[in-house]
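hiii, so i know i said id send this last week but things got crazy w the move. better late than never?? heres the sequnce for the chain we talked about at the cafe, plus the structure i predicted for it. fair warning i was half asleep when i ran it
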Amino acid sequence: MKETAIALGTFDGVHLGHKKVLQTAVNSGLFSVAVAFSVPPKAFLSDKKIVLSDLEEKTELIKKAGIKEIEYLDFPKLKDVSAEDFFEFLKAKFNPKMIVCGFNYTFGKKGVGNTDLLRKLCNENGITLKVIDKVTAFGEVVSSTLIRNLLKEGDVKTAEKFMGHPFSVRGEVLHGEKRGRLMDFPTINQLLNEKTADLKFGVYMSKTVIDGKEYFGMTNIGKRPTFPSSTPLCETHIFDYFGDLYGKNLRLYLLEFIREERKFSGIDELRSALRNDKKTILDILKNKD
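okay and structure toks below
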């Protein structure tokens, strides 16, 4: 059985702190394995909207860090396992010669196991433990909580700095009411995953990936107060794309917050606002070139 370096964590958002954990395992010279739960335990145990990255994106980002293998564990099956038994499970399944985790890593039933216990268990079993200290960037300690708070405020640009990549959502393109077409702003409609971290309602500069190609656009996230909806919706007008996307599962990156969602008196006022939003975004893109 090959010897491994295992990186432990939730890796939700795969932010700069997570990347340091992953890269330490990669740089060990051993076969690197990331071990995480398919759903963050906090998301499973509560109704809070906290998830920063879906499983597909998490997998892509972990692999991009250089990890050779990813093992997603089933939290419901392991949530009542003691910390000591969880360690024995890791030892038997992965044959680790090195374990890497963050300073605040917890494990076992109710998260009672911490890095002190993990160090004791590793020492008893001849396993090297590397605990990654707090990672700071731009004067702040990088954490998933910090990033969630930034997203609530609409500050996706700063969130991107702490994550090392833009925040994104993914969803199937659904049939809408086609009001956008009547205003010369056809949109694609996507529902947000019920566990996705809370996002500030409003208009964003966005980027959609279609068949491997990136298209800029503008996205409204919210309940459309001009044409009320009970369910938050993600509506995107994609610049320079005219194909049929119904039924496709598309990834959407939120790049910059443009304005808050607001109610308009009718279609004419809304159309005028959309024109202004598009001009604002095109000006931003022009200045980036």
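btw The CA atoms of residues 102 and 132 lie 5 Å apart. thought thatd interest u
miss u guys!!
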